[in-house]
Amino acid sequence: MKTFILASLFLSTSAFAQEAPKPDAAADSGADAIVVTATRAPTSIDRVAASVTVLDKAAIDRNQDLTVADLLLRTPGVSLSRNGGYGTNTSLRIRGAETDQTVVVIDGVKLNDPSSAGGGYNFANLLVGDASRIEVLRGPQSILWGSQAIGGVVNIVTPLPTRDLEGSFDVESGSRQTVSARAGIGGRTGPLAWRIGGQSFTTDGISVIAPAFGGREKDGYTNRSVTGRAVLDIAQGISADVRGYYSSGRADLDSTIADTADYTLNREFVGYAGLNIDLFDARLRNRVAYGYTDTDRDNYGPARARQKSFDAAGRNQRLEYQGSFAIARGWDATFGVENERSRFRSVSPSASLAVPIPAPARGKAEITGVYGQVSGEIVQGLTLTGGVRNDDHSRYGSKTLVSGGGVWVLPTGTVLRGNYSEGFKAPTLYQLYSEYGNQALAPEQAHGWEAGAEQRFLGGKVALGGTYFERRTTDQIIFSSCPARPTVAANPLCFQPGTTTARSGFYQNIARAFARGIEAVGRAEIGRVSLESNYSWTVSEDRSTGATFGNWLPRRPRHAANASATYTLPGGASLGAAVRWSGMTYDNAANTTRLDDYTLVDLRAELPLSPEVRLFARTENLFDEHYQTAYRYGTLGRSIYAGLRGRF
User: Fold this and answer.
1) How does the protein's chain sit in the membrane according to the entry (predicted)?
2) Rounded to two decimals, what is the model's pTM?
3) Which of 109, 537, 554, 568 has CB atoms 3.0–4.6 Å from 291's, for a disulfide?
4) Quick one: which of 540, 420, 443, 541 has its CA closest to 140?
5) Tens digits of per-residue pLDDT, 115-152?
6) Rg of the chain over all Cα atoms, to the nearest angstrom
């Protein structure tokens, strides 16, 4: 009977025949419909149960933002804090989750730094570069993306060429001697498709420490990055592809109380090689791949006798198989197995040359995940999705997660969505093995659900929608500070394990967090006017027992809103304005340090010089608003930029 069923699936009649979606988060997506690849396979947005925002190349160009973080800040449910100007530590939070609970993916490869405290990704050095689309999935996504995807997923895809030769460039300059230049070129030659893109960015910057706290000198930033993709068709249904990303950044730093000459160097490398095999007339697609990420961070203090003050390196090696199977018309399955090996090294040398450099902290971990997800159209317009995942961690054993959801597109233009998902995040190598480590930590766990609706009018030219969500996190890991002169009797964790050396703090599982909120969105295309808006109400609370119970989690506004309007003139020129309002936040867990609300207004314009070349200009923070996203740290004032954009 099993043999008969399998044969029927593969040899079914044309009434059920279909091709499976490519099992790849960086797969090419058609321009005729909005397709989401952060689901690890190209999927129509009307079949995705989770809340998702898709920014295509036109939206990326229209917003004119230089960094991915600033671009994402305009989307629902996203908040950001930055410790100064460009290049400084940048934390992006989705629906109030920790910044290290968001998975960042470039061309199908996860970006995370095992040597960072939370094991997450620092958005400071991620420029828009050659990105052709950016997708944001909100809510737990651990079924397909594994550990860490508690808050959501940010998927960045670079383009593959569609013509024999094509290219693009963007050059701009503006306030604070800021200059950005990026270019890309690619083509198709027989069975080979390839593209290479690069970007150079430099700015004199602002003082990392805000002027109100004594910041006087400018802290500059430079970044160079390169991306590349190539796909070779070996035979019918068989192809090989390679991908790469490299970024090198240098940012000036200040201490927490004064200007300094310190600076940090950050180097990131991502490599990928894969083989794609289609079977049974592409009803079964297979991908076998190897991914590698390498992050190096070094801090220097020129005024120190020993100038290097910090040295850290994180490595990830990832082997994976992913498949997708077209079960029947409207029914698809995605499944796979992946093995990830991580290691880190970290050391903080003393400023005195008389003190030997200590042995670096080191650690490694391995996790193997097996997952499967089935999506099927039960009746016309109604798609249900269910998935399961098992992660086997070298230290914490096996953990199984489940998810389920549905989306219903009604003939009235109404779209209903709802889903439930779980998350699991093992302690990071830094939290376990660094000088602040605690090897008794337990994994963080989360579960969340959401329900929402969207109503489309006038053939989709006007749409209004809203979503309610909840997420509970247990065993959340936090950093606890130690007193100036700790005693072993009072708290043995205030000493490095196995020694009598006191430390300033340690990591422990005491925090519980609860988040709930509403996201409302609206858009309209009325003649030559395009309107977009969103509002987020996000309550992120500390539910730990003790004095902080019920407090706001730091640097997460409860209210935030974005609105933009663009008017396109008959000749193709356009004028636009964008407004962002962020409510007040607290900078610390005790909720004693308040950061006031703020409103930022941006203006932008474009003028076509030819069918291929456009002149653009923008003013950011038009009214020179003074504000903070992190206490004591500076933010950019009024800024004016102008440049040229070409698409060939």
Assistant:
1) Multi-pass membrane protein
2) 0.92
3) 109
4) 420
5) 998 888 889 999 998 999 999 999 888 899 987 888 89
6) 25
